[in-house]
UniProtKB/TrEMBL annotation:
It holds the Pfam family AAA_31. Its main location: membrane. Its EC number is 2.7.10.2. Residues 9-102 form the Polysaccharide chain length determinant N-terminal domain. It comes from the Bacteria. This is non-specific protein-tyrosine kinase. The lineage of its organism: Bacteria, Pseudomonadati, Bacteroidota, Cytophagia, Cytophagales.
């Protein structure tokens, strides 16, 4: 098969002609696409974009006193992960908190007066605080959510409520969960404004508003939104990103049709985010104050009782002074008991924190417990690491699943850090116990020394030491409480709203009519163009002369114009027709090729039946005879004879009878209405046509005809079906291979190409039949010469 170097190049003229011939498809699709664009523009609610900015800060806020306290306690500054903050802002929980502060549960819509709404409610406008009615929803009962509930105004005081929907969620606003899905809801009720309505699925009251005067016959509808649907809607429209790669300023963007509604949402979201941050920072201080207050509550009664007991003992026993030695011993004893009390307090606090960490609540989720008095820098750093890991985990859980590798890694680091904290706290508890045991031993020695003192003096010293111990412990806790209160009172969030929400520009971002109409027009032109290209690639038939030249090296002789199927003898019946001119051109080209050679026998064949092989052989023979040459036409296709459609023939004798019965030549040759043209029909259909054509009688017949006629034309069978052509091929001087425009499959030429390339066939030429000049640009100029034809 021929491999033309331009085979893969784009023939722009060819494609332009193909597109031009199907201009009506482009017109229809363009009109439909523009109509669809018009419907889209009219039915799409304009969506605007809104923007606000938020500063994350550097967590160095608070008073100087609080900062000094944090430095004394060796609390390191904790940096902010911008990615984590972005995740928190976009999280479902944060969006839910913001929505719970707003009244977006009921959304109101108005059906516009437009001819498109006669088919369906296509053009709908959302109303926010502008509807002629207000829905007072009873959230203590079940409601039908996320479906349109139509409101048809009948007059100024009466309206009609309509619902027609399948698979409707029944929602509980107390738990914010779907109770069940109702398969079908068909509801129609006439009510008055201000009249409550309640059933098992709905509980509401519609009240008139003064914003818009309701017009009878107007249609509205409202949707009761579940909290989950509101969260999904706002999350889909929300985007958060830093203003620059290294910046701590976040840009929050949202999209929606109602400016006031989206601006309120963005502002509320930022306010809730800032409030949550401060609440998180205050959580640690509140826990510390709760613990110290619980200790102080018990010490207040103990201090009062100890002072009262000392005063009573002095009064009853009239004791004013104690000797110096006793004072020294009791002073040591008092110091040791104070040391033991401090150690017991520290141990109790360590055990309290350890218990909370093991249970996974309380201070384990706080930012840092150091303001309460933990003096271990290692433990403080571990708490900071745990807080950072928890924050990073919250950021990843916004979009990641439980199987996410990074999430698993963070959870592993959290578990490891918690284990290290538990180990450190256990060491501190054990260390405190050792110190307590040591102090107890030293106290025991002093108490044994004091046992020798007089009973009254010993009792007095006991009461004094107990009172001093409780007093010192009380002062110590009061000092720690003051430190914690200062840190809590001066604590402030490092998040700040920089720019409140505002609308970006004045034009909607979704509906741009010019762009949409242009896009619709391009789509309308692209669809038929794609269809034509697809059909052309799927169509494997021969489309024209260039197409034929790309798949074969066989020389091209000419084309036969398209004509009426009923006009079998076109060259005789209408000599000024395009078909007659086509055969005249082929005859001239053929005579030019045979001018210098003795070519007398011409054979016509094709790939398959239906390509016009017989039509071409009959009309070509007629044209040659009309030019003054004596021509005989032989019907060698004895399996499917068709000469009877062209000439009145006697079927009782012909080629088969000559080859088998030895019938004389003058009896098998039949005259036709065309001067100088005789035919030899096939005669009776034989059972072995291939064997007959191989007989010496066939060679004898051709030699005899050459002496009586200028040209012998043989209508041979198609080579794609039977083998008779290969039998006759050795007798042929010129071979004409007929292909039909938009009919012959390109793969059918494989066999004839192999014969030609292997030089097993000689003097072969291609003829294209039934070429419609209006369907190919190669001969498009000929349609302008139609006035030359009759």
């Amino acid at each position: 098969m021929k491999k033309n170097k331009q085979e893969h190049e784009i023939d722009l003229k060819s494609w332009f002609f193909k597109f031009k011939s199907k201009w009506y498809l482009f017109a229809v699709f363009a009109v439909v696409a523009l109509a669809a664009g018009y419907v889209y523009v009219k039915s799409s609610s304009p969506v605007f974009e809104y923007k606000s900015t938020l500063l994350l800060g550097d967590q160095q806020t608070g008073s100087k006193k609080a900062q000094e306290l944090l430095e004394v306690l060796q609390v390191q500054s904790k940096g902010i992960k911008v990615e984590d903050e972005v995740g928190l802002l976009q999280s479902a929980e944060m969006v839910k908190q913001a929505l719970q502060k707003l009244d977006f549960t009921v959304a109101y819509y108005k059906v516009q007066d437009h001819w498109l709404n006669s088919f369906s409610d296509l053009i709908v406008e959302e109303q926010y605080e502008t509807a002629p009615y207000v829905v007072d929803l009873d959230t203590s009962t079940y409601q039908l959510v996320d479906i349109p509930i139509k409101v048809r105004l009948l007059d100024e005081n009466t309206y009609q409520l309509l619902i027609e929907r399948e698979n409707v969620p029944r929602y509980d606003f107390k738990t914010h969960s779907t109770v069940e899905s109702i398969p079908l809801v068909s509801f129609k009720k006439t009510l008055k404004f201000g009249e409550p309505y309640q059933d098992k699925n709905l509980s509401l009251t519609l009240n008139r508003s003064d914003v818009e005067d309701p017009k009878p016959g107007k249609e509205y509808f409202f949707v009761i939104n579940s909290l989950e649907s509101q969260v999904k809607q706002q999350q889909a429209a929300l985007s958060v990103a830093p203003i620059d790669r290294e910046a701590r300023v976040l840009v929050l963007k949202s999209k929606g049709p109602i400016p006031d509604k989206q601006i309120a949402f963005l502002n509320t979201l930022m306010s809730e985010y800032v409030a949550n941050d401060l609440k998180e920072k205050n959580h640690n201080g509140l826990k510390t104050l709760e613990f110290i207050d619980s200790q102080l509550a018990g010490l207040s009664d103990s201090l009062r009782q100890s002072k009262q007991a000392l005063s009573s003992f002095r009064s009853n026993n009239r004791i004013a002074n104690i000797n110096v030695q006793s004072n020294i011993n009791y002073e040591k004893l008092s110091q040791l008991e104070a040391e033991r009390a401090r150690l017991n307090t520290d141990k109790t606090y360590y055990e309290n924190i350890l218990d909370q960490i093991k249970n996974g609540n309380g201070i384990a989720q706080s930012v840092s417990p150091t303001v309460a008095g933990i003096q271990s820098p290692i433990l403080n750093n571990l708490f900071l690491q745990l807080a950072e890991l928890n924050q990073k985990k919250a950021g990843y859980r916004v979009n990641a699943t439980e199987d996410n590798p990074m999430l698993r890694k963070i959870e592993g680091e959290i578990a490891s850090t918690r284990g290290a904290i538990i180990a450190n706290l256990q060491n501190l508890v054990e260390s405190a116990e050792i110190s307590i045991n040591d102090v107890n031993g030293r106290i025991g020695k002093i108490e044994s020394n004091l046992a020798s003192l007089p009973e009254n003096e010993r009792k007095l010293m006991d009461l004094q030491s107990q009172s001093e111990f409780i007093d010192k412990k009380y002062d110590f806790l009061m000092e720690k409480r003051a430190d914690a209160a200062i840190a809590l009172a001066t604590n402030a969030t490092d998040k700040k709203i920089v720019d409140h929400a505002s609308m970006v520009g004045n034009a909607p971002v979704n509906v741009k009519p010019k762009m949409i109409y242009l896009l619709a027009l391009l789509i309308g032109l692209a669809i038929p163009a794609g269809f034509i290209v697809l059909m052309d690639n799927v169509d494997n038939t021969i489309q024209g002369k260039n197409d034929l030249a790309n798949i074969t090296n066989i020389p091209f002789l000419g084309v036969v114009a398209h004509g009426s199927k009923s006009d079998k003898l076109a060259v005789l019946n209408n000599q000024r027709s395009a078909i007659a001119e086509s055969f005249r051109s082929i005859r001239i080209n053929l005579q030019y090729l045979m001018a210098e050679k003795d070519f007398r026998v011409i054979g016509l064949t094709s790939s398959v039946s239906g390509e016009g092989k017989t039509f071409c052989s009959v009309n070509l023979s007629s044209e040659m005879a009309m030019s003054g040459k004596r021509v005989v036409l032989i019907e060698a296709d004895m399996r499917k004879p068709t000469f009877g459609k062209y000439f009145p023939v006697a079927e009782s004798y012909g080629l088969s009878s000559f080859l088998t019965q030895g019938q004389p030549l003058e009896e098998v040759v039949q005259k036709t209405a065309v001067e100088n043209l005789d035919i030899i029909p096939c005669g009776p259909i034989p059972s072995n046509a291939s064997h007959l054509l191989e007989l010496p009688k066939m060679q004898e017949l051709l030699e005899l005809l050459k002496t009586q006629y200028d040209y012998v034309v043989i209508d041979t069978p198609p080579i794609g079906f039977v083998s008779e052509y290969f039998v006759l091929m050795r007798h042929l001087d010129v071979n004409l291979y007929v292909v039909k425009h938009k009919y012959t499959n390109k793969d059918m030429l494989t066999e004839i190409n192999e014969l030609y390339n292997s030089k097993r066939i000689k003097n072969i030429y291609m003829v294209m039949n039934d070429l419609n000049y209006n369907k190919t640009y190669e001969y498009g100029y000929k349609k302008n010469a139609k006035y030359y034809y009759a």
